Structure formats: C-alpha cells, structure tokens
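Researcher: I need the complex structure. Ligand is zinc ion. Inputs:
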Amino acid sequence: MVSDEKVMEIAKALQGLSPEEQQDKFNELVQGLSPEEQKEVIEKLTGGNGGGGECPFCGMVEGKIPVKKVYEDNKVMAILDINPATKGHVLVFPKKHVALMTQLDETIAGHLFDVANKLSGILFEELGAQGTNVVVSNGAIAGQKAPHALINIIPRFEGDKVAISWQGEKAEEGDLEEVREKISNRAKNISMSEPKEEKFVEEEPRIP
Ligand SMILES: [Zn+2]
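Model: Output:
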C-alpha cells in the first residue's frame, strides 16, 4: 500500500517535465517500491489527473461540459449520472480537484457528505426510492472509474439490477486485535484536527 503523501510527492516531482523526463524521474522515484506498489502509483497518478489529461469533472465545474445539475454551491456540485445505475442516480463531488476522497480537506469532506445525505433524503421523497446506496470508491481496485473523487447516490427500487455486496468471512481474534490496534492508534488524532474551535478563539478578543 502506497500512502497518498508518497503519490502526491511523486506527482509533484513530475510536474512540468517532458514525457521522457517524467518516465526517467518516475523510475527513479519508485525504485524502492514493489511491482504491485508501482502499479498502484501509476493507477493513482493516471486516475488522479496526474498525466496532464483533462479531468471531465473539473470541466463540468468550469462549465465546459454540459451537465444535468441538481445542486451547486461554492464548494460542491451534484449532477445526474448520464449512465445511471437506476433512475435518479446522482453524483456529488467537490469543485476542487482531488483524485481520492482521502485527499479532501476535512471541512469540505463534511459538507460534501452533508449534501449527499440530504440529496439521498430527497430521492426517497421525490422519486419514491425504497432505499439508497451512498457509495464512495477510492482507487481503481475499489471500482473508482472517475479521475475526480465523488460520491454516488443510487436510489434503490424493488427488482433493480444493482449489486453492492461482499462475502464476509469469520476473522481470527488475533487478526482483529492486531488491526484494531493499528487503526485506533492513528485514529486518536482524528478528533485533534477539529478546526472550528480555533476560529472561535481567534474572534473572541474582538468582543467588547
Ligand atoms: Zn477534477
């Protein structure tokens, strides 16, 4: 598994280079990585608009590509998928380009999910959906097809052809504990990056 930071570092190093120079620089930077990891970096880079190609979603934000818009504010946009899984399949995405949802600034991530959740409620009410799937796929291996991070909101109806499933297998107690420890140690930092508190403190002295 290659960290997003590493991928970003490589993407930055390749910026402004010719294709040949990019190839040489790329080979140099991924030398220490396994073939699987190299493949992962390539997928993230090409999927992440790192190859210099136009991102269609950024084109939509800029108004260069026509869309069936259902919602827009200064941070996010929501459109109808033109190849919907079911009628009313909505895509919600940040206006700022990020390849993976994990690269998204947390205040935008929070807002993005809030908008997605409200649109999901609207699909129940306006389209008579019996359920919704709110899906984020990170990386090609997870089924991400767009180079721009987005949330799929798929309204569900009796007899539709949507399949989102996996077969769970009983885990060993030791494995669960090892994984739990790894994740929870890092996750301790999640609540430390709460940005609202700071802003409030900053403005406090202005109160007479
Ligand atoms: Zn984009």
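Model: Summary of the prediction. The beta strands are 69-72, 76-80, 90-94, 131-135, 151-156.
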